Amino acid sequence: MCRLKGTTLQSSFRDGDVILGAVMSLYHFSVLKNHSFTEKPSPSLCSGITYAVYRTVYSFAAVMHKMLLSMQLSGYQLNVREHFQPTLLSQYLKNLQMKSGEKLYSANEGPIRQYDIVNWVTSRGTVTYTQIGSFFPFAPAKQQLIINQSDIKWNHKFKQAPQSICSESCPPGYRKAQRKGQPVCCFDCILCSEDEFSNETDSTNCMKCPKDMWANKMHDGCWNRTLEFLSYEEVLGGTLASLSILGSLLPLSILFIFLKNANTPVVKANNRNLSYILLVSLFFCFLCVLMFIGRPITITCILRQFIFGISFVLCMSCVLGKTMMVVIAFNLTKPKSSGRMWLNSRVTNTLVLVCTAIQVIICAGWLAHSPPFEYTDNKSKMGIIIVECNKGSSVAYSCTMGYMGVLATLCFVVAYLVRKLPGSFNEAKLITFSMLIFGAVWISFIPAYLSTTGKYMMAVEVFAILSSSSGVVACIFLPKVYIIILSPEMNKIEIKSTSK
């Protein structure tokens, strides 16, 4: 800063006042009548002045001009030392307003609410300036600074704004992570996690999407999730539902045929009452599939496991009862055989009742302790909410399936051991094949069920139910229906073979 020669005026300022640019150091003590502020000034003794100095000097000159004119100088010399009043100068400075509308800082009025941003351009020793923007200290965040990039005239070394940051801005979908031991402007851009988003540049945090929404690929917004469950409207669900209804008609039709031919040898063989119960249980095995299709709710989640577990155990109990009947009947044909009392149907009926009651107790304990319920999974698949039934207790579910497997295995072993017994109506071979199919289906079901999710998991379980039920119907009852309808001559007691 250059210093102007002259004597400093005494008593021209008070404690706390600020001398603006040292312009109080004047060269003359008086102003003549013909002296004007419009005269050409002396050559500049300074260079590289700032905008603040420029604004202050011109403001002070304008105030002095107004003050001197207001004193109505008329042909006499005014001694500035005697008549200059600092309070009057302060009043004029408060009321001074620039052409741009800007006012100088005043301690009474508070800080300036707007600053002009000026682009200084030097060319051949001259300095020009252009307003290229404004700064509003009290404006909302990200609205304080306004810059018109097109108005900026850069030095010949630059064609655009030079980079003055350590890291580039993080786009929406990312968050800023501060680098340890480095300045604040140095950071890394971290992509928001799977269920989070950020819709602002240089966001410091990612926000979580609502549970029924998910972050899009750019992670700059949330989209509505798609609900997934085995529906009747889709091809897969509609096909399985149709197969369930058609399959349920098969045991009903066979039951009607058996009732119509109830007194024939084929129907009476191996306890026809067990055959009736077995056909009814198979009817429910087919129909329980409908509980696995459609949007799951808590009541359907409970009913599907209860009906499925009881129906299949009742089916296996009837098959086991028919197998035991074959063993008992064959042993009674041996010489000196006693125990004809075991041939009574009450024995097999009791066996069926006890085996089924055990499953009922397991299911009742399951439902009482931790019953199945509706569950939504929004993590397994991106953008999809899987609506399914939570088993409630995996132990109870395992016990239900395990008990059913034990009965099926027992039926298979007993039937296999007596498969070569003589007799035209011996069902041991048919039961062996049916249990072989039943076991193969459910053994294959385990890895297929565990490797799928969502509606395809339900489809696998439904397919296993339909396949195993169809295997029992086809192996045990279709040969008998064939004899009744197409080969009635075989449906006679005389054609039974006798042992030698």
From TrEMBL:
Keyword Cell membrane: yes
The entry's keywords: Cell membrane, G-protein coupled receptor, Glycoprotein, Membrane, Receptor, Signal, Transducer, Transmembrane, Transmembrane helix
One example GO MF annotation: G protein-coupled receptor activity
Record membrane topology: Multi-pass membrane protein
Any single Pfam family the record assigns to this protein: NCD3G
Localization per Swiss-Prot or TrEMBL: Cell membrane
Span of domain G-protein coupled receptors family 3 profile: 236-500
Sequence intervals crossing the membrane: 240-262, 274-294, 306-330, 351-369, 400-418, 430-450, 462-486
GO cellular component, one term: plasma membrane
Recorded family membership: Belongs to the G-protein coupled receptor 3 family.
PANTHER family: CALCIUM-SENSING RECEPTOR-RELATED, VOMERONASAL TYPE-2 RECEPTOR 26
Name of the protein in its database record: G-protein coupled receptors family 3 profile domain-containing protein
UniProt lineage: Eukaryota, Metazoa, Chordata, Craniata, Vertebrata
